[in-house]
Structures are given as structure tokens and as C-alpha cells.
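[step 3/7] fold_predict: job queued, chain A
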Amino acid sequence: MARVLVVEDRESLRRMLERALAEEGHAVVAVDDAPPALAALAGAPFDLVLTDLKLPGGSGLDVLAAARARRPPPPVLVMTAYGTVAAAVAAMKLGAADFLEKPVEIAELYRRVAELTGKSTPAEVFAPPGAPPIVGSHPRLRAALRLLERVAPTDSTVLLTGASGTGKELFARALHALSPRAKGPFVAVNCAAIPESLIETELFGHERGAFTGADRRRLGRFELARGGTLLLDEIGELPLAVQAKVLRVLDGGRFERVGGGEPLASDARVVAATNRDLAEMAATGAFRRDLLFRLEIFPIALPSLAERPGDLPALCRHLLERLAGRHGADAPELEPAALERLERASWPGNVRQLANVLERAVILHPGERLGAAAVEALLAQSAAGEAAGELERLRAALAASGGDKRRAAEALGWSYRKVLARVREHDLEGFPRYRG
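[step 4/7] structure written:
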């Protein structure tokens, strides 16, 4: 039995929720507005909070904030009107565990409450046919997957946000596999990996003779993705001039090859992904505000690995099996103490960093039983590799910006202060002009 706080101003729905949860054996406290909800949260602890977002005397976000301030914080399940995806996404960013759309279906209510109160375990693997599996059962991950399932059958533009290594390309591939375009091509382009001088040609193609060396017509990614899905990964790295051309495609469905004057129709569904704060970039003029509005039609925020530590054992099992198969080796076995040490790690590189650590384990310790000490050594090697990779990225960004530290910070997605600190730490003041 769980102690549940229900916050809903519509009396008929509040009574229905109270009755349905009580029939499942839960102890229910039901209130009709934010102020009594905050008063209830100041008293005895709750195991779950179920709140509407729109309340007459406040906001469900106020209830969410009060619940998050409790120690330990109870999971919060927010209720949203049908189709108000933006409200659900905003609540998830602020720490809501999951969302439930109105009109509320009792069977779905029971399932979500059971998951959030530990009375049931959701499936650990989400694997649509034709797409790599997404592993994890944390409510925030499952909520993101539900959003994906809702938007996949449409042709809407989707914006995937989350730190590097959280699985944005996996989500994009799953979205493509669940869409009516599944039989068409899936084309991914990393906007951060293409030099600024080539990005327009890469996306839109060019005509023969468009510039020196253009000895033949070349199709761009928008044409190659015709009938399918185009993933614009790290879209925050696009130059402003190219952002304008992407906006034109999203608004009017037309583009031109470089050196061509004939408008071409685009038939590619666009999925954008970023680890940058595009709203902050738009405020400083580094990203077009009108393009941001166009991309934010359907945003999906992916949780970091640190936000879902309970998923780590399942992720380790899946990754070790996959990596062992790739290397033709027996997967090592992780002792409970080893898993506990992995769960305590901060994982700034998220699932990608975890996969790197486990790949090292497969190569160095095939078929062995690994304890905490062995995992500690693997984590130390990972930290050393991360530091070396950071230095390499900093040097590359400084070289590309001609030593302009603000531009380097923008390219890296770092704060200007962090770039200054790393430049001093690695003796890179004046680089690249004073060194070859």
C-alpha cells in the first residue's frame, strides 16, 4: 500500500481518482488546489504525488517543486490535457517522474502508479523492429519513449535534447522504425563534424561547376533522405546562414542545390538533436529564434545516466553481451560490489562512456568475474582517456577559431570561463599562433 497525494480541481475527476486508488489499497489524500497540496506535503511523507498542472490557485509545477524539496522526494506523476506535450516536457525537465494524459484511463493509472511505487517492473528493453534496442525501465526514460511512440506515426519535426551519450541517435532510429517512413532511408549527419565551408553542400548538394572542383552534381542529405528520415545531429553547431536555409525547408518544404536556381521539393522528415541549450543560444543571437520555434513543435528530453541509476545493471548486461559478441569473447561477470561501484560513478559521458568502460572490460578480462577493485581500475583508465580527449577537442576548437576563445567555447558547448581555465591549465594561451 502506498500513501498518495491527489491534486485535482475538477471534483468529478478527483473523486474518481480517489476511489480508484483506494480500491487498489492505497491511502489517498485528495485536495483541490495548490495551497492545500503544499500544506499536505509539509506534513507526513507521501510515496507518490499525482497532480494536475493547471490549478485555480497556483500551478502543478509549484506542487512538483514542493515534492522535490522533500527528503526523500516522492515521485510526481503529472496530469496534462490531451495534446499538451509542451507542458509535460516542461514538467519532466523540472523533475516529474512521468506524465498521464487526460482523459485518464483507469488501467493506465494503475500501471503507472504500480511502476512508480515499486509494485511492478516495466519492460527493460524497448526494441521496435528495425531499430537498435533502448535499454532501461526508469520512469523518465519510459515517459520519453511514450512521447516518441505518440509522435512517430505523424510527420512532425522532432527535437531530441540531452547531454552527449544519452542515446539521441537511438531515439531517432526508433522513431524512424515506428513511422510510416520506416521502409525509406534513415540519413544522419553530424553538423559539428563538418567544416563550416562544406556544411551547405553536405545538406543541400551542389550542381556541376558551382565552385572550383565541383566536376559533377552531388546530392545533399535532404535529397538522400527522400521518403525517409533525416537526423540533423548537433544542430546547434549550424552556421546562422545555413540555419536560415534549414528553416526554409521546414517552413516551405523546398530548397536549392548550391549553384542551382531550381527549387527542389523536400520529402524528408526532419529530426534534430542537440546537447546545447538552444533557447540560451537564441537569446545571445547564436541560434535563430524562428528556427528554434519551428524545431520545438515536439521536443523530447532524454535523461542522463546519472538521472536513472537503477537502469545501470540492465544496461551493463545488454552492453556486455553485445560487446562480447563483437569481439568474439566471453563476457565478464560483474560482482554485486562492482555494479555498486559503477552505480556510484558520475558518468559525464553517459551511456557512451559506460559502453567504453565495459568494452575495455571485455578486452582485458574476457570471461572473468570482476569485483570492485577491477572496476575501479577501469574507471581510472576511462577518466584519463576523457581528460586526453578533452584536451584534444580544446586544441581543435582553438585551431578552428584562430585562437578566439569565445568562438571555441561556443563550438565546444562549454562556458567561456571553462575554456579560460583549461587554456591556463594546459598552457595554451596564444595557441595556435605560437605553436605548430
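[step 5/7] annotate
The radius of gyration is 24 Å.
The mean pLDDT is 87.
exit 0
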